[in-house]
Predict the structure.
Amino acid sequence: MRFALTTYPRIEELEARLEVQRAQLCDLTTMGAVIAGIHEIDAVLSVVMDMAIQLVDGEVGAILFREGEKFTTKTSWGVTEKFVGNLTTTDNQPLVDHCFLSGQPVLLTDLQMRTPEGLLVNSAIALPIQTSDKKFGVLVIINKAQGGNFTAEDQEILEMLLNFVAVAVDNSLLMKERLETQKTEQEMAIARQVQETILPQGVADIPGAEVGAVYYPARAVGGDFYDVIRLDEQSFIVIIGDVSNKGVPAALVMSASSGIIKSIISANPTIAMDELASTLNELLASEIVKDREMFVTLLFVKFDLERRALYYCNAGHLPGLLWDESERMIKSLPTSGPIVGQFPGAVFEQSTMPIESGDRLFLFTDGLTEAMDAEGNLFGRERAEQVFAAEIELSPNEFCRKVKEWVDSFAAGASEETHDDFTILQVRVE
């Protein structure tokens, strides 16, 4: 009889505790469903802060995430980031750092510590927010609202909650990455369509000359473009350029540049190449590029077959190469001027060179010379000259395809991240 008297109260106490735990588990199940349905990290953490405080009857708390080398408060209840950052373990280690790095909960009891802000800290609990392979941050709750210490049961219930949280945060980050990837892919598709619309689908026959041109795209859409504009039976202009950016911004500036160039030439077919560069520069700098950190490099070359001369203006682009058939040697078009689109009032210069039958002009963008091999060596200008001389007997179209073979052979084994788009263009005077 004495046994029954002492046992019944304990059984009733255990039953009461089990009922509380069942209620908490039920709450956790509901909370888990709520958390799983939220896809924004900040919203998830705000809800979790509220849930955690209620589950363990906490007074104040905060959730901090590691961003780079420091912690940033994502959400808090009645406590500052500085205050939480000053909390230490029993061996004077920063509480948040220790919990995050160790990946283990920290339970502090019977502290009886008065902070400079006047808050009495009696008990604190810190738990890491992490998955099996990723660490995100730390949950810290300070003081029981009704007094006393946090317990092992409090720790257990919070660990169960944070298991839901870590998965939700991981899923949210993955979803964000997927959305960003989809956005980038959509932008690349738009840029590619713009670029394909601008680049010539084929080069028209030019009396007295043969022209070959090819654009080789990389995975990312760059700002390369070229054009061949026939003026009359005896003259035409070839243009090659590169916008200092990728994706949609580069494609739009490229589109604007191409349209402006054609409009200027249509209005004034006899325009000098330096005047063409200057007019384009003023329009881009004042109306298109403005204060954006973008610019265009361009090389304008006008062939006058009647006068047997070419007139060129280099606006920050790689110098072209000229094959002198009579001397069987390569010459450079060295004169270079400022880039286009950044400096209103910039002065450009037109130069001239004689041309004869059999002479060839080779133009290219920096994606050719900056192609890398597996050891990080650049293809370079010297190799560009080497392939020019070695394949000089090929037709311009065959030459363009052959250059790609040289580059592919050189870059075999190199990472795809080192590949850039490049454009090559060759003109042979007949």
The chain has ten helices and 17 strands. The longest helix spans residues 152-198. The CA atoms of residues 109 and 123 lie 5 Å apart.
